[in-house]
Design goal:
This protein has about 260 residues and is of the alpha+beta class. It is built from four helices and ten strands.
Length: about 260
Amino acid sequence: MKRKSWLLCSIICLITFGINLKIFSQERVEEIIGEDKPISTPFCSAAIGWTLPFSEMGNRYDPFMNIDANLGWKTKKNWLFITEFGFGFGMDNVKIKDEILKDIMTRDVQPFIISDGGSDAGVVAYNRNISFIGKAGKLIPFSKKHPNSGLMIIGGGGWLQHQIIYQATLEKAPQLEGDYAYGYDRQMRGFMLSGFIGYMHMSKKNFLNFYAGIEFNQAWTKMTRNYQFDLKSGDNKLYQDRMLTLKFGWMFPFFGRDTDKVYYY
């Protein structure tokens, strides 16, 4: 009986060892050997950024976050062509909220918007940015061993819209809802130029593809609303909005590389 038990345990151990050896061998197979080559591939990417606004935008907003979605193409000669949709938002970061809403706020030491229940509506204000940009640029490798990674320089132009969003966090504030909100939102729209410099990495492993760097945007915008309640009129001036953004993005190439040599151990 003991001999049978020992034989059964031996068989189980051998099977387990064989399975582990096979798994280990498969893991070794994934080690790719050979020169990395320049590739041509379409890709999509998602990026997050922290933006410091300047000029007129800096007068209105404190720093805010950005989220971008991109579609692009990288050629074998390392030219980059990208279309980008951007969305920016802050957290109660509007500097001029009290100035714009002064006519509908209380005259207390700490003024507030009166709700439909007669108390503080707890109104916060934040920016909302939307942009669409076409970009082109160049990837400059630092080493021949890594021809798909290196200095990333791109530029382009497109369209920007930004405005103020008001939100009552405690109780309803009818004076800032529906069409009334348009009279306080300072919606701006116009042409924007964009430039980016940073590092781009494309790995032999498809999941390790990213870029990081600094982006500078310059926009020329005009107000889209014909009337703002606090101004008692519209505003036809052309404003300059500037933004400096620290950005990190993750890339997803659609096509892989040419087959490399694989060694078994």
